[in-house]
Amino acid sequence: MTGLLDTDALADVFAAAFDWIYGDAVYSVDAASTGSVYDPTPGEPAKYDCKGQIDEWSSRDRTNTLVSVKDWKVILLRQSLRGADGPIEPIEGGRVTIRGITLTVSGEGGSAPAVSSDPARATWVLRCKL
Q1: What is the predicted pLDDT for the residue at 126?
Q2: Rounded CA gap, 107 and 62, in Å?
Q3: What is the CATH classification number for the domain harbouring 27?
Q4: Which domain holds residue 53?
Q5: N or C: which end of the chain has fewer CB within 10 A?
Q6: What confidence score (pLDDT) does residue 76 get?
Q7: How far apart are CA 128 and CA 114, in angstroms?
Q8: Are 73 and 107 in contact (CB under 8 A)?
Q9: What is the pLDDT, as a whole number, of residue 97?
Q10: Are 70 and 130 in contact (CB under 8 A)?
Q11: Is residue 13 within a helix (H) or strand (E), and if so which, with residue range?
Q12: Which residues, at least 6 apart from 129, have a Cβ–Cβ distance to it below 8 Å?
């Protein structure tokens, strides 16, 4: 039996209802390097338009050292982050540009993961550094 949280239905409803609140953002990730190990050529970054917002970490997260003082919290609508082949899952090392600020997804300096999601899988929560 499939529950409501086991499908994309709730994420679709959330994206449709709150799309207007989230601003335009661009998620980018570098493609794999080519060439030899001693002289690699960096891959071109793949860029994906999406919807997101910069948020604040809770005082609980900061007090329990889950995140560092310099960490930024970015929330992306999961349904907005899609490529030609389907959904894109953010990874550590990816970058988000939102409101003219480019942040790098990083889990360094605390015990919270770099990328997480809410239980309904409606949003991606990214722990970023400037």
Answers
A1: 97
A2: 14
A3: 2.40.10
A4: 4-129
A5: N
A6: 97
A7: 7
A8: no
A9: 98
A10: yes
A11: helix 9-18
A12: 70, 71, 72, 103, 104, 106, 108
What is the tens place of the pLDDT at every residue in 34-93? 888 898 888 889 999 999 999 999 999 888 888 988 999 999 999 999 999 999 999 999
Do residues 82 and 8 touch, judged by C-beta distance below 8 A?
A: no
The percent of residues in the chain predicted with pLDDT above 90, rounded, is 58
Count of Cβ atoms closer than 10 Å to residue 20 Cβ: 8
Mean pLDDT of the chain: 90
Which DSSP string corresponds to 87-106? E----TT-EEEETTEEEEE-
The pTM assigned to this predicted structure is 0.86
Number of structural domains (the chain) is: 1
Tell the residue number behind the tokens 């899952």, with chain if given. Answer: 89
pLDDT given at position 109: 86
Residue for token digits 């953010």?
90
Decide: 30 and 42 in contact? Cβ < 8 Å.
yes
| Distant-in-sequence contacts of 4-9, Cβ < 8 A, 24+ apart | 4/120, 5/119, 5/120, 5/121, 8/79, 8/121
Answer whether 127's CB lies under 8 Å from 112's CB: yes
Q: Greater confidence, 125 or 118?
A: 125
